[in-house]
Amino acid sequence: MREDMAKYRRMSAIRPQSFQDLVTPLYWAAYDTGLELLKQQEAALALPKLEEALQGSLAQMESCRAGCEGPEEHQGAEEEEEKGTQGGLYEAIAGHWIRVLQCRQHCVAETATRPGRSFPVRDFLPSQLRRLHEAYAQVGNVSQAVENVLSVLLFYPEDEAAKRALNQYQTQLGELRPDLGPREDVQRFILRSLGEKRQLYYAMEHLGTSFKDPDSWTPEAFIPKALREKLREDQEKKPWDSEPPQQKPPTYWKDALLLEGVTLTQDAQQLNGSERAVLDGLLTPAECGLLLQLAKDAAEAGARSGYRGRRSPHSPHERFEGLTVLKAAQLARAGTVGRPGAKLLLEVSERVRTLTQAYFSPERPLHLSFTHLVCRSAIEGEQEQRMDLSHPVHADNCFLDPDTGECWREPPAYTYRDYSGLLYLNDDFKGGDLFFTQPNALTVTAQVRPRCGRLVAFSSGGENPHGVWAVTRGRRCALALWHTWAPEHREQEWTEAKELLREEEEEEEENEEEEEILSRDPSPEPPSHKLQRVQDKAGKPLRVREEL
């Protein structure tokens, strides 16, 4: 559906007013509109929408809290006994009140969760206040800017950026204004929330109840000492949207690239983004030819892994062929494809991993999580008036929402992917350039033309939305690789493929040794020693020398 929507947006007769969202609440629509206006430097137009979003968010929480009141369904005695809730009147009242408080606190997360999503936006209210104080400052309304930045400091008293902004606003005002303070609606929200948290943490410590705090701004003083460490670990594991990583200038590594015959063609600044790079010289023309032949042989044998030779899942106008490292090793073992190509596939993937780690993550090891030799071929006779892309704009470890510019790092996205790489094998085709966009998936910020031995490497998150222009003629082949910091997500098939190829090499060496022994013995009599093929207990073939 997202791909269809993107296709409709590119049609000349379609206008934004043609789309009507029947699901998103009004405060979310106002929030999204306000953010879009801020991106366009229209602070005056954005302010009413941002205020509407904040008031709507607070009203939604009130409505949600009201739903927490009322009677509960009566539980049977057996269920109460199983849950340990059996007791007298006071226990029943305490249990009911705790459940009401838990429900009320959950309203924060419910309000901050966009429809159709699984997890809330981190610091939804404080982030709205930050945008409000910045927008008021841009239009020259310093008094309102002060009120909103003071409201941010109610959530995070030590926020350095907010304190610097407050000092700047006070300097502009020229004097302290005792009548200026935080927003009253925000003060009421925080005081009420802290009162409820205090009760819930008390019950958690003394009554053995559970409570998942939806907020990261809760003062540590409100949390009992015995619970702080565990809650801190839970907060770190919570699936919030993460901030895009900061670019680490790899100036110390450029000389190493040159020494290895690899050149840095474009860095992140030249590509108008963060954590992006184009590197040339990773493959020789002969190596590109060997991998292209491997893909051709595998395709002709009907060994297309993943999509089994069907039309591309991304475009009905292209055919998509994919080959994994393990499938390549299995085909080489069967004699269907050449072993040098399968071996090179393994070697090159490790080459890319080493360079990616050295460039982006020198202090933290990266592991291959998936390696895929991919070819996209234009289907003849189906390229006229084509409007779609070879691969729609996306991010590799989160779901990109072009309407809001947010990227949701949650399952079933490949959330463990940290860096991506595309190593190109050819350029004798039309179309098929890689391009990066802004989070709206429409504004192109950089474009890269494939060529033999060229690697485009980048971080896998929402800071690097990318897509592929339509391949309208010929066949485009590349090695797609994804890397992870998490060792538990390393590619097991890569290890299996390496072992399979190693066993084949050992068998060939043993065959050559046997032939050499037999060729040195000219007598027609059987040799005093012979090599026999046997199996070990695990069923693996072994060659042993048997004394006769």
TrEMBL record:
Annotated Fe2OG dioxygenase domain residues: 371-485
Biased composition range(s): Basic and acidic residues? 533-548
Query: What Enzyme Commission number(s) does the record list for this chain?
Result: 1.14.11.7
Q: What class of enzyme is it?
A: oxidoreductase
Q: Which reaction does it catalyse?
A: L-prolyl-[collagen] + 2-oxoglutarate + O2 = trans-3-hydroxy-L-prolyl-[collagen] + succinate + CO2
Pfam families with a match to the protein in the record? 2OG-FeII_Oxy_3 (PF13640), TPR_leprecan (PF23557)
Name it: procollagen-proline 3-dioxygenase
This protein's species is Rattus norvegicus
Coding gene?
Answer: P3h3
